[in-house]
User: What shape does this take?
Amino acid sequence: MSKSNTRFKIIDILLLVMTILPPVAGIVLKVLFVPHSDGIEITGAHVFASLDLPLMPLIISEAQINSWLVMIALAFFCLYLTHGIRAHVDTKRAVIAEWIVETIEKLVTENMGEYFRGFAPFICSILALSAFSSLMSLLGLFPPTSDLNVVAGWALLVFFLITYYKMKCGPLHYLKSFGEPVPFLAPLNIISEVATPVSMAFRHYGNILSGTVISVLIAAALQGLTNLIFGNLPGILGQFPFLRIGIPAVLSIYFDVFSGCLQAFIFAMLTMLYIGGAFPLEDYLKKKAAKTEKRLNT
Amino acid sequence: MNTLDIISINIWQIIISLCNLVILFLLFKKLLFKPVKNMIAERQAKVDKELDLARQAMEEAENDRTLWQNRLDHAEDEAGEIIKKAVSKADRKSETIISTAKERADGIVRQAKLEAELEQKRSEEGIKKEIVDLSSILTGKMLKREINTDDHRELIDEFIDEIGEIS
Assistant: This one.
């Protein structure tokens, strides 16, 4: 009994360590490989490696690495939450896991309907990946969500899903939907169809990037102010950035924490609304009923 | 090593990120949602089972209650009847006892009366006899002659009766 208990605890600690390790590894990677900067620079992700592939070189950038690290951490955190989960044991983490699952399922069924209950893990993964990617900036790492490619990939997947659910009633039904309410509006409909993923990607990316940009601008302004006020002090005191201590942290609460979580929520919400709205459930059910009736008749 | 531009589009990166999301979806489904839902389902089954058991026990208890209530009601009626019977029986018995007692008492009184009368008569006769004896002695002495009591009994009786009437 005690042996299995200690084994259980060791696995627990291992899982927690594996949860914390990826961000630490990200910091180590950044310290080792990313060239030093004074924080008053606006650049894209650092490129670690570049492979030659047809069409375009495959770039392994900081954004890719960081999003993989987030995924690994999340996977191990899930393992930790559900480790030793049983019906009769009500540990704190089991309650947390249950709360997460039930909240997401409730959110999904409220916004998309009972038919889309299976979408809960997808929405959960969007929320978690987006939020924690944005929160990477709290650790001084490059937030993957401020790279357009990352967010564009998610938006593309959402676009595929939207199209898939619009096609569910048959391609003809899908093509017909472009001619509504009047046929000559078809170009506009096509544009709005394409605009959905583009706007989603740029909204998310732009919000996170703008936070970074404003942070950098404020850092630069505070550096200038410090130089103006304390620049005449002798020795190292004249170069020490006094005003850059503490003040950016307050702003970071908004731009990194609040904005990151909000954008994650908005992205998940839009995904749910677009996919839920794309699927003509009544037509689909009618068609299905007609099909089964036909099958019964023959 | 260089850095990317702020806005850069790379198809491979987009595809990688798309795959990342799909993989994370599968991970979440397998690692978080499945075990938790299994747990919830298991617990739900357990709760349902226990609820069923409780409901069954309650039904049984309710049945028992009605059964015993019925019996209790019957018992009350029975008890009332028994009491009524017992009371009437006791009444009857007491009546018979009282009546027999009365009869016996009457008998005793009557006998006592009879005995008293008999005694009175006896004593009256005794007195009479004594008086006769006495008067015969007296008259014998007075007349200096012995009187045959038997010869004069009639006479003496008459005499005594006269005395009794007078007295």
About this structure: Residues 2-297 of chain A form one domain. Chain A has one domain: 2-297.
